[in-house]
Amino acid sequence: MMSMNSKQPFSMHPILHEPKYTPLHSSSEAIRRACLPTPSLQGNIFAGFDETLLQRAEALAAVDIVAQKSHPFKPDATYHTMTTMTSMTCTPTSSSAHLHHPSVLSSHHHHHPAHHQPSQGLEGDLLDHLTPGISLGGMAGSDVCSSASHTAHAAHMSAINHMQHHHHSQSMNMHPHGLGSHSSLGTGLDSEPDPRELESFAERFKQRRIKLGVTQADVGAALANLKIPGVGCLSQSTICRFESLTLSHNNMVALKPILEAWLEEAERAQREKMAKPEIFNGGDKKRKRTSIAAPEKRSLEAYFAVQPRPSSEKIAAIAEKLDLKKNVVRVWFCNQRQKQKRMKFSATH
DNA sequence: ATGCATGAGAA
DNA sequence: TCTCATGCATA
Question: What sequence ranges are listed for the domain Homeobox (predicted)?
């Protein structure tokens, strides 16, 4: 990849920018996918029960993944790593409190059958068949067992609260987080849910950020310096996703004012610095990341194509079949659904 | 830049 | 249990 480390101490002053929280809007997104009709194919061992979607999924999978390419490597299932690193993410020195939550409302929309991107596949690994309704052995052999250690890491979340926005939509959430406040910020009436704006802002943001010589990680950390109520730091991942518009619409809308505030403050600070020529001079357990091999991934995608929201039983069956932990499969589906909901050029474009 | 994961809150 | 926002770990 590339290393971009232009760490530079940046001191920002708290800026008091009036937070304006954006309401959400329904993100209209259209996700369409094509389900090909393809009956045929069977010869299951468990025949009898199966049938249903999963089976078809496999058939589809076989067809779907016509000629694709795949990666040559086949990593083991999971690997853990333990290391001690004093991650000081952003936990600020004292405060233990700052966990507001971001909650953005969400509008829900109609989903469509999913849509997934072409993946890699090569040899047609025909899946077997599962019995949908019944859960074999009660629990798929793998089951969630103990995914071993999940170290609860400090939860720090930044918060973004939104309030109203009357719409037929449903949710609105705030997180109580003890501190009695419910930020009653100015009822926001704010921003434009205009995807156009977001897109151009994200682009400008990235460019100005680079101009400042700041990395995505720097931005995330610096956010904590802007003492915007309810806003802590964010990770490099999130900044990156913001810039590449790979966040949900609501999330983009919520983050925009915050990043905008940071940008202005950062540029202001730099101007100031430029002005005066004299200054400066210049442990823990790590979470493990399961790696799902290409063949398994192809199967999952095939199932997802026909049934984005499998029941617990089906998930268990799939997990057993692919020899993955049930929880891994469940999470995979969740993430897949989230992906399909992301912005980028999904619908409005 | 992304894959897999966690957790809070809403169903 | 799912959705959503987010993050760690990793390619």
Answer: 283-343
